Amino acid sequence: DITFRANCSRLADLYTRRRMWQIGVKLMTSGTSEVGETAVIRSLAIEELQKTDEMPQTSIVTTKDALASLDEIVKANLSGNVKRGIPTGFQYLDNKGGLWPTDLVVVAAEFSQGKTSLALDMCINAAKRGYEAAFYSLEMMSNQLAARMAASESGISCRTIMQSPLTDNQLRQYDEALGRLMDLPIFFDERSTISVERIIASIRTMARRKDVKVAFIDYLQILQTNGKEKGQTEEQFFGTVARRLKNLAKELGICVVLLSQLARSKDTTEPKLDRLRGSGQIAEAADVVLLIYRPEVYRKKYSGDYSNIDPKGTAQITIAKGRNIGYGSFICGYDAPTTHFYELTTIPRLEKTTSIDEEEPF
Fold first, then answer.
1. Beta-bridge mates of residue 332
2. Mean pLDDT across the stretch 236-251?
3. What span, in angstroms and rounded, lies between the C-alpha atoms of 73 and 69?
4. pTM (2 decimals)?
5. DSSP characters for 179-197?
6. What would you measure as the largest C-alpha separation in the chain, in angstroms?
7. How far is CA 201 from CA 13, 114, 192, 270, 328, in A?
8. In degrees, to the nearest 5, what angle opens at C-alpha 337 toward C-alphas 336 and 338?
9. Nearest alpha carbon to residue 218 among 255, 257, 275
10. CA dihedral over 185, 189, 195, 199, signed as positive or negative
C-alpha cells in the first residue's frame, strides 16, 4: 500500500529529526555552561549525529522468536557447526567459546602479574584469526605497545628492541615478526584515552568504521570520567564505569575486555574475586572475570591441584566468574623477557628435590 509506505517513511523522517533536535538541545545546553570537556562533548555529538543514519530497532522479541533463535543454536551444535566467540589463543578458554560478543570480560591481577601482556596476547591471537580489535592503554603509547607485540612475536626482549642495537640475527627475527604483525587488524586511539567518555565514543566509532569485534581497555583504576558525581565513592564510580562498558558491549554486539587491579592481601598472594580493587560492583557487572597468578613472582609454589607444577615460567589463569562458560582454571606459559603468555604443549612438573623459599615478600 502506497499510503502505508509513505506514512512509514514520514515517521522514520520525523524520528530522525527528533533525534537531531535532541542533539542540538544538548549542544546548546553545553554551549551555555562550563560543565564538561568541550572535546568530549563535540566527539559525542558527532557520534550521535552519525548514528542518525541508522534505523531505529525494536527491542521487543516474542517467545516464538527467542525459541527459534535457540533452535538454530541446537541444530548448529548437532551438525558440528558450533558457534563460538572470539578466539584467545588459549585452548581452555576457546573450548568454552572464547570471548563472547555482548560480554564484559574483566582481567584482574596484582601489580606486575602481566595484565597488559595477557590482554595484548589475546588481542594478537584474535587478530591473527581475522577478528578486528581495538586496544586502549592509559599508560603506554602505541609504539610501546607495538614493541611488546614485536617482543612477543620475535622472542627478543622489549627492552632490547627499544634500547639496544639489534644483532644481525635479531634483526632477522625482528623483521620476520613485523611481517607477521604488520597487517593485523588491531587499532589504537591514543587521543581517546583521557577519559572513559572518550574511550566509549572511540569504541562506537571503531565498531562502525573498522568493524571492531573486541575492545581492550588497560586499565580501570586509572580511568577518569567527567560524569563522576560529587560525593561518589570509588566503589560506586568503578561500578558505574563497569556497567557502562557492559551496556556498550551489549548495544554494539562486541566484547569489551577491561583490565583491573587486585588489592593486596596480608593473608595470601593468590588472587580472589573479592579482591577486585575498589568495587565488588565490578564483578557484578562482568560476565567473565579472569584472574592471573604467577607464584614465581613471590617465590612460592602453586597450591591445590597444581602443587606439583613448576611455577618457573608459568602462570595460572582462573575463571573466577563465568556467566555463560562456568568456572575453572588452567596453566599456561609465561616468558618474562618478552612478557609473553602462551599455550603450553607440556606442563612442567616439579622435581622432588626442588625447593622454593616461600618467605613472605611483605
1. 315
2. 89
3. 7
4. 0.80
5. HHHTT--EEE-GGGTTSHH
6. 86
7. 25, 27, 8, 36, 34
8. 90
9. 257
10. negative
